[in-house]
Amino acid sequence: MIPAAFEYVAPASVEEALAALAEHGDDAKIIAGGQSLLPVLRMRLNAPEWVIDLGRIDSLRGVRDGGDHLAIGAMTTHHDVGQDPLVHEHALLVSKAITHLADAQVRHRGTFGGALAHADPAGDLGAPALALDATFVVQGPGGTREVAAADFFVDLFETAISDDEILVEVCLPKRAGWGASYEKFVRIAHQWPIVAVAATVRMEGDTIAEARIGLTNMGSTPVRARATEQMLAGQPATEEGVAAAAALAADGTTPPSDLNGDADYRRHLATVLTRRAVLAAAGRS
Amino acid sequence: MTATQEPTAGAEIGRDRRRKEDQRLITGRTRWTDNITLPGMLHLAMVRSPFPHARITGIDTEAARSATNVVAVLTGADLGEGQGACINAWPVVTDQVTPAHLPMPTDRVAFAGETVAVVVARSAAEARDAAELVEVDYEELPAALDLKEAAENTVLAHPDLGTNVSAVWRFDSAEAGTGGDVEQAIAEARENGIVIEREYRQQRLIPAFMEPRSVVVDPTGEQITVWSATQVPHILRFAMAATTGVPESKIRVIAPDVGGGFGGKLQQTPEEMIAFAVARKLGKPVKFTETRSESLLTAHHGRDQWQRLTLAATKDGHVTGLKVDLLADLGAYVAIVGGGVPVLGAFMFNAIYKFPAYQFQTTNVLTNKTWTDAYRGAGRPEATFAIERLMDELATELGKDPLEVREMNWIKHEEFPFTTVAGLEYDSGNYEAATARAKEMFGYDELRAEQAERRARGDKVQLGLGVSTFTEMCGLAPSRVLGSLNYGAGGWEHAEVRMLATGKVEIVTGASAHGQGHETAFSQIAADRLGVPFEDIEVLHGDTQISHKGLDTYGSRSLVVGGEALVRALDKVIEKARPVAAHLLEASADDLEFSGGRFTVKGTDQGMAITEIATAVFAAHNLPDGMEPSLDSEATYDPVNFNYPHGTHLCAVEVDTETGQVKLRKYVCCDDIGVVINPLIVSGQVHGGLVQGIAQALWEEAVYDENGTLVTGSFVDYLLPTAADTISFEIDHTTSPATTNSLGTKGVGEAGTIASTPAVVNAVVDAVRHLGVSDITMPCTPERVWRAIADGSSGGATTEAAMPHFDETEGGVQ
Amino acid sequence: MTRISLNVDGQQVADDVEPRMLLVQYLREKLGKTGTVVGCDTSSCGACTVHLDGRSVKSCNVLAVQADGSEVTTIEGLAGDDGQLHRVQEAFRECHGLQCGFCTPGMIMQTVDLLNENPSPSEEAIRLGLEGNLCRCTGYHNIVRAVQHAAGTTDATEGAPA
C-alpha cells in the first residue's frame, strides 16, 4: 500500500527534468500521470530513490496542429486527447481507443505519453500509434530526436527512449476522413485487453483503398497486421473479402498465454476482431 | 399463488423505508476500523511466507529492529502462548484430523501468505519498510496443491498428521430412515431407466468484501478493547478468551461500521490474534490494516469442491435417487466452520424435489493453500448448482423442457409441511406460484421461439435460457440440530429493548450488521410492535459491552432468528407495561387493549401511550406495589427449525460463438421469502446476491500456480464484475409466510447467490448445446466457451499465469 | 519532507509531507478526512475517488505532492454548508444505492463527475461511466437507479419490488 521512501523533484521545464535525470540516472523514475507507476511503487515492485515529476511542465500539455500532423504533448491526459476535436478529425482511431482505455478516473489523470512510454503490450495506445505511423519526439542532453513508431516499441515495457531521455511529444500524421474502429476484447470492463485490434481504413467508394491495423497484446510489443493490410488494399469491403484478409491477422505473432487465454485462443481472437474492426472502420457493421 | 403481501396503511412492516444507516454513509461520517486513531498507537506490518509449505529455519530480525521508529519485531516464539490459537468450532466428525493453527507458526508454514513475524512501528509506512528487512530462512517442503492429488495423500500438507483427509462425513437416507437405498435406485435405473453421471467443479472463490480487514487493539484501561472489521464480534471475543486465558469479561470487541463480509469476515483471524498479543505484550494500542493483496491472499477463500454426482430416474423422468460424492478443499487449516461448509450443503442437494433415495458423502481435504470457509451461501450454492445442472441434463436426456422435468419432481404446494429425504421439514412454499410468475415476467415462450429461430438461422450469436429453481436452509440454526452435527456452539439469538425516559427506544441485538440494514429493518419491526415512531427507535449492535450476548450475522439468520428474539423482547415490554397501565388508568389489566402504541380501556376513550408509561416507570413515583421499576426486557430465541426460502430464477444469455463471449440479456427471478419487512432492502439483497452468483458462473476464480502462489492476487486478476458487465434485473416475490416465526419471514441474504450460478451456467450450456456442448467449467470464460464449441470439451483448465502489467521493475514507466 | 499547500473541501491547508505519501493517506491521516477510503492497491476499485481540480481521480493513485496547489473535493465537502445533501447523495439514499457503504464515497464522487460531463446519461453510459468503481453489495442495479434518479431520467422506485 505504501511506497518505499523516495526523494521527489518536480521540474518546471524539460531542461530541468533532463538535468535531474542526468544527476540521478538509474536511481530515478519519471512520473507522468502515475497511473501505472504508482501501483508498482505501492506494491513495492520497484523502489526508485528519486521520482521526477513531469506534472509541472506546462509545455508538455496540449494538442497542437502541426500542419500535416497533430503533435500531442506527452503530458496531455487521455481525457483531454479523447475530447480533442482535432484528434477526432485527423486521428479518429486514437479517439476510439481512448474511449475504452481504463476508466474515467484513470483517463483524467493518466497521460498519452506516459502510457506509451510504459510500453505495456496490453496498453490501448500502442497499436493505434503503430497503425498510424506515429513519430515519437524524445529529448535528451543533446537535443531532440524523432523515433518512428515501428522502432519505438522494443520489448515488454521497453522502448527506444534512452535512460537520459524523456518522451516529449507524439506526432500523428493527419488522416482526415479515415474510418476507424478499436475492437477491445475483455472479460470484465476495467481489464486490460486480452486482445484488441486497432483498425483505420480509407475508403474509395465501396473499396478499401488503404488499411492500417495494429494489434494489442499479441506479442511483447504492439504489432502491425501487415499481411492483412496488404490483402485488403484495393479490395471491396465485403464480409467475405475482409474475413479472408483478417484470417492472416495473427500470422507471425507471438501472443502470451495467461489467465485470460492461451496463445492459440488469442490468435483466433485476433482474426475475428480484425474482421470486425475493419468492417466497422469501413462503415460496414 | 399465495397471497401477495400488501402493507397495511401506517404499518411499518412491508414499507420501503429509506435506510437509517445511509446518512452517515453518504456523507463520509462512517466509522470504519481503519479510521480509528488512538494516542501512542503503534502500527503492525506482517512478514509473510512466499512459500506454500516450508520449514522456518531462521528469522533474522536484527536489521528490522534497528530501523527508524521500529518498536519491536516479534515472531511466534516471542509471543509464546500469549498468541492463543485459531479455533475450529465445528469438528464435523468426532475423529476429525485438525492441524494445530497458531496465528503465527513457529516452525513451519502451511500456505503462501502465512505470517511468520510482525513488525511494530510508529507508523504503518515504517512498519512496512522494516518488514522488508526481516530475513527469514526457509527449507522448502513439497506442497499439496491439487485437491484430487491431495486426497490421495501423495504429498502431505501437514506431514505430522500422516494424512490430508481431515474428515469423511456421510449421510445415507436408508441408514437414516428418511428414504430408500440409493445404490438400489441406481442399479434399477441402469437396468430400466436413466442414469446421469457427472463431475462438476466448484472453483475456489474469494469473498472480496470491499473494506479490507482491519483491527485495532487498545490494552489500556481495565478491559482490552478490540475494534475489528468482523461479522462476528461475539464469537471473536469468545475465541480470544478461550485460547489466550484472558478472562472473557476483560475483553470488549467492537465491530464498528463494517464494509461487507459475505462470510469472509466470519472468522477469528491470525491477524486479530497477533494484534491482540502484541498490544498486550507492549501495553500500547496497535493497529493492523491489510492491503487488498494481503486480503485476497490470506482472508479465507470459499467453495473449492469437486462434485461427483449420480442421478437415477425412471424413463419418464421421475428421479429415484441421487448420490453425491464430494471432495472439499479446506486449505491449510480447518477454519472456524471450514469443515462444516460442505456439510451445510448435505441437506440441500435434494433441493425442492421429492427424491426417494439419497446419499451424500464429503471428503474434507487439507492442502497447502489459503484456508477456506463460508462464502455467501456456504455449501448451499454448491449443492444447488449440482442439482440444477443435473435436472437440465435429465431434461435433455428426456427431450423435455427443463421446467417440466422440475415440476414432475418438486414438492407440490399442498404437500407442505414436507419432510425431505435429507430429513428436514420444509414448513411452507409454493414452487408452482413462483415459477408461474417468473415465466410470465421472463416471456419464456417468446424467448424459446427466438432461440429456435436463431438456431435455425445459424446465427453467430446464440441465445440460451437457463433455469434454477432453488430452495435453501437458512436462519442458522436450531441449537439441538447444531449439537447433533457436533457444532461447538448454539444457534440462538438475543435481543434487548430499553424504554428510555424521554420516549425513545433502544433496541440491542446480538446480530452484527455489515451492510444489511438492520438498523432500519429492526426499527420497523419495533415500531409496529410497540407503536412508537420509526424515528424514535435506535438500534445498537456490534459491541460486546452493549450487546453482551449474541451469535452475530451469517447464514441469513439476523431477521429470522434475531428478529424473532426482538419480537419476543418487545412483547415482554408490553406485558410489563400492562399492569402499570392498569394501575395508572385505574382499570383491570384484563380490560386493557394494546394497539397503536396505546393501552386503552375497552369501551372508553381512556388510554395511555406506552412511552408515557415508560416515563412513569422511570419516575417510579406511582407503580403497582412490588413492581420492579423497569420495562426493559430481553429475550433469547432458539429457532425451532431452519427457514426455507425458495424461488425460480430464469436467465437469458447471448453467446458469441466466434469468440465465446457470454453476454447477459435478461435475468428474472421470483423469490418466496415469506413476509417482507422492507422491500427496498430485500431488493438490494437480491440484486447483490445475484451478481455474486453470476460472478461465480462467469468471472471469478482464485488460481494458484504450480509453486503454490496465488496468481489472482489483486483486483487486476481476480475479476469482480463492474457496473458495465452487469444488467438490470427484474425481481418479484410470492409470499408463503414461514410458519416457524411470528413475523412469517424467511432469510434473503444468500438467496440470489445460491440461485443464480446454475441459472447462468444452464443458460450458457443451453445456448451451445446444439453445437455438441454438454458442460462448461466455471467460470465460463470466453476461452472455455470457445473451446467447448470447438471440441465438445468443458473448456479446459485456466492457465496459471497473470498478465504482467505491474511486475515490471526496470522498464520505461513514465 | 516536502511542503504542500492545497484547498480541501473549501479549506486551505498546508503540511510537510513525505513525497511517498499518497493523496488518500494525506486526506485520511493528516486531515482526518476518513470519509475517503482505500479499497485496493492497484487503482482498480475506485473507493478512494475524489475530485482533483474538478475532475474525478483515484486518490490512492496520486501522490500528495502532486496535488500541491490544487483543489480537492471529497465526499465530506459535497453537501452544502447548511448540511443540504448533494442531489447525488440524496439519490443514493432514495434508491438504496448502497449497502455496506464502503464503495459509496467513491461511487458518489464518480457519479457527480459523470453527471457533470453528461447530465442525461443512458443506462449504458452510466454503467460504462462507473466501470472504475467496484461494489460488492448492490449488484449495481440500485446504483444505476440512483444515478438515473439524480439525473432526473427515471422514477426512483422503478425496479423496486411491489
UniProtKB/TrEMBL annotation, chain A:
Alphabetical list of SMART domains matching this protein: CO_deh_flav_C
Domain of life of the source: Bacteria
UniProt entry keywords in alphabetical sequence: FAD, Flavoprotein, Oxidoreductase
GO function term, MF aspect, one: oxidoreductase activity
E.C. code: 1.2.99.2
Lyase is among the record's keywords: no
Top EC class for this record: oxidoreductase
Keyword NAD in record: no
Pfam families: CO_deh_flav_C (PF03450), FAD_binding_5 (PF00941)
UniProt-listed PANTHER family: XANTHINE DEHYDROGENASE SUBUNIT C-RELATED
Protein name: Carbon monoxide dehydrogenase medium chain
TrEMBL record, chain B:
Cofactors named for this entry: Mo-molybdopterin cytosine dinucleotide
Molecular function terms, GO-annotated: iron ion binding; oxidoreductase activity
Enzyme Commission number: 1.2.99.2
A Pfam entry, by short name: MoCoBD_2
Keywords: Molybdenum, Oxidoreductase
Gene3D superfamilies, A to Z: Aldehyde oxidase/xanthine dehydrogenase, a/b hammerhead (3.90.1170.50), Aldehyde oxidase/xanthine dehydrogenase, molybdopterin binding domain (3.30.365.10)
Protein name: Carbon monoxide dehydrogenase large chain
Source species: Nocardioides simplex
Taxonomic path: Bacteria, Bacillati, Actinomycetota, Actinomycetes, Propionibacteriales
UniProtKB/TrEMBL annotation, chain C:
GO molecular function: 2 iron, 2 sulfur cluster binding; metal ion binding; oxidoreductase activity
Coiled coil: none
Pfam families named among the record's database cross-references: Fer2, Fer2_2
EC class (word): oxidoreductase
Domain of life assignment: Bacteria
EC number: 1.2.99.2
Keywords for the protein's UniProt record, in alphabetical order: 2Fe-2S, Iron, Iron-sulfur, Metal-binding, Oxidoreductase
Protein name in UniProt: Carbon monoxide dehydrogenase small chain
Organism: Nocardioides simplex
PANTHER family registered for this protein in UniProt: OXIDOREDUCTASE WITH IRON-SULFUR SUBUNIT
InterPro entries, A to Z: 2Fe-2S-bd (IPR002888), 2Fe-2S-bd_dom_sf (IPR036884), 2Fe-2S_ferredoxin-like_sf (IPR036010), 2Fe-2S_ferredoxin-type (IPR001041), Beta-grasp_dom_sf (IPR012675), Diverse_Oxidoreductases (IPR051452)
Signal peptide start and end residues: none
Pathway: Alkaloid degradation; nicotine degradation
